[in-house]
Every structure is written in structure tokens, then in C-alpha cells.
Amino acid sequence: MKIGMVLYPTFGGSGVVGTELGKALAAKGHEVHFITYSQPVRLGFFRENIFYHEVSITDYPLFDFQPYETQLASKMVDVVKYEKLDVLHVHYAIPHASAAFMAKQILKDQGIDIPYVTTLHGTDITLVGRDPSFEPVITFCINQSDAVTAVSESLKNSTYEHFKISREIHVIPNFVVPAEENREFSEHMRRKYACDGEYIICHVSNFRKVKRVDDVLRVFAKVNDLKPSRLILVGDGPERYNCERICRELNLCDRVIFLGKVRDTAHVLEIADVFLLPSETESFGLAALEAMAVGVPVISSNTGGIPEVNTHGYSGYLSDVGDVVDMAKNMLFLLQEENLKKFKVHAKERSKAFSLNSILTKYEEIYLNLIKAKSTK
Ligand code: GMT
Fold this sequence. Notes:
Layout: E1 2-6, H1 13-27, E2 31-36, E3 50-54, H2 68-83, E4 87-91, H3 93-109, E5 116-120, H4 123-126, H5 135-144, E6 147-150, H6 153-162, E7 169-171, H7 183-193, E8 199-204, H8 213-226, E9 229-234, H9 240-249, E10 256-260, H10 265-269, E11 274-277, H11 286-293, E12 298-301, E13 316-319, H12 324-334, H13 337-351, H14 356-375
Parallel strand pairs: 1-2, 1-4, 2-3, 4-5, 5-6, 6-7, 8-9, 8-11, 9-10, 11-12, 12-13
The structure holds ligand GMT.
């Protein structure tokens, strides 16, 4: 198949999932065309069957805001037409689903029928999309999509709850691509960040309010009082200054490492003992799954789709949003040597339910059905 993959090229989960999906499809022999405004961070190197089409953004003095959606739709038209794509897959509804709808109509006018799949990732529904300034467009474009998928049951239910959706939403959970382990490197890096006998706690996010990184610091402070540890924070975003201030207030500066944005998070996760994800809302929690895949148990909130990923008492523990006392208590329990050993094994085991192969075939099936339906029209 020839597939057009539209996504945000950034560190966010939706971009990571779209990129890894495209790479896996290309490795299976499909031709994958990425369409976005800059090279996706996880795209990596020159590979067979992968093509990248950059959406150029015009900087004209009249535009206070760049008309990205229009230029994206134009690029989609161009790529579908000249690369003879079979299907478009857009990740994150805003503005990718509406741009896909526009491209579809333009192509229809030229006698080309292109189906598009919209994958809902979370904030496009739970935070941003629900806003009245977006809602009518989002509802329309989801309903007009030829297929709609959501990354968790929880997100599917929220979509039905908040929008008037008249079509089926298929749940296809996110997946994890195992990174190549390098034990020697991990041990070396671990010694760089923690002394013998200290634990390493890790958190990865875009430092937006919804991630509650301040809770990460508060849980860490309680744990560190009883078990000397280090906290590695990966990512960057609007809450970083606030978090740096809290570190100073809590006297934690020599215990907390702000790494900033990192492409190969798996290698950081490999040196961690526990992953912390106390989010206000989370449609899936890809960062938690990536931690589990390298054998790191997860202390998280019990919101949104997280309970579909992290199993309470098995791969980690779940607490109510904001309950930093319970999270710290659970973490201290996990950090007991025997418990930690057991939970590390369980975390890895649980992550296997999200293997790339089973999820890949689900997307392929959706594309094939749409292409078949097109040829019988
Ligand atoms: O977490 C974010 O703010 C980024 C956002 C995105 O769209 O990139 O992540 C969402 O999609 C991820 C991939 O499907 C999910 O794992 C995250 O849970 C989801 N974030 C939220 O729901 C807050």
C-alpha cells in the first residue's frame, strides 16, 4: 500500500506513534510518505520505503497567524495525486483531520477518491478539541473521516461523551518498539547519575500543566527523605521554570537532573528504577509504556487510559490525581529490593500486551478495508 502519514513532528506522543507506525509499515514493505512541517524527531536515518514531504510555511506580513492548515491540505493534494497514494492517515484531529477533509474534497473534484483515517490521541479531544472554538469543526471532521481510531477505551468513551459522533470508533492501543539494550552503556550511565545504593526515579513529559510535574517533585521529595535517590526529568515545556523554583524551595537541586529534550528516551529509561506519571489526564500514557518496556515499573495517577496500560499491584501502582502521599507510599514499597525485582519483571511482561506486530495488523486491516470499499464504489 502507499500510505500518507500526517502528524506533528515533535516529541509528543502522537508524533512518536505516527512516526514509529510509519517506520514499521515501511519495514513491512509499504510505501510511507510523511507529510508535516519539519522532519519527525523519531524518523531517524535513510530507510527503504520512507519519503518525507515538508509543508512549507509562507511568512507573509499580512498573516499574523500562518495558514498552516491550508498549506497542509494543498501538500496532501499534491502528494496523493503525484505519489498515487491509496490512503491518508492523520494523527491528532487538530488541524490534521480538517486539512484531510479539505484535501479529500479537492481531490474528489479532480476525480480522485482518497480515504482518510483519523487517529485521536488525547488532548485533541479531552483538552483542546472540546473548546467551543474548535468543537464544531472537530465533530464534523471526525464524522467525515472514512475510519476513526482512538488510542484507548477511555478516549473512545470521552469522544462519544463530548462530541456528537455518529460513526464507529475503533480502539487501537499505542505500541512500543523495543530499543536495543546496551547493558555496559546503561551501567556506565547509571554510575554517572547516582551513587551506589541510590535509586533513580524518572519522569518524561512535555512539562505542560496537565502532566503535574510539580507532583513529581513532591513525591520525589518524600521518597528521597527515606531512601536517597535521584530524579531524572526528561523533556521541556511551560512548567519547567516553576519546577526549577520548586526544586530550590525544597532544597532538591543536587538531587534533581533536568536533562531537557532527549530523542532516545529508552536509553535514559534503562537506567531508572521507577517511572512517575502523575498526570491530571492522560488518554494512554505512552511514556509509561516505554518505561515498562525496558523493565521499569510505574507509579501513576489512575486517570483516563492509564489504567488500561499500568496494572495496579502488578506493573506498578495507581493513585488518585494529586494524592502525592499515596504515590510516595507506593514508591517506597516498590523500592524495597525484593519488590523492585519482581515489579521490574512484571512491568516488562505487561508491556508485551502492546507489541508492535499485533497493533500493526490492526491498522493494515483498516487501510485495506477502505481501499477495498473504494474499488467497489
Ligand atoms: O501528552 C501530551 O500532551 C502529548 C499528546 C500528543 O498528542 O502528542 O499525547 C497524547 O497522545 C499520546 C499518544 O497517543 C498519549 O500517550 C498521551 O496520553 C496523550 N496525552 C494526553 O492525553 C494528555
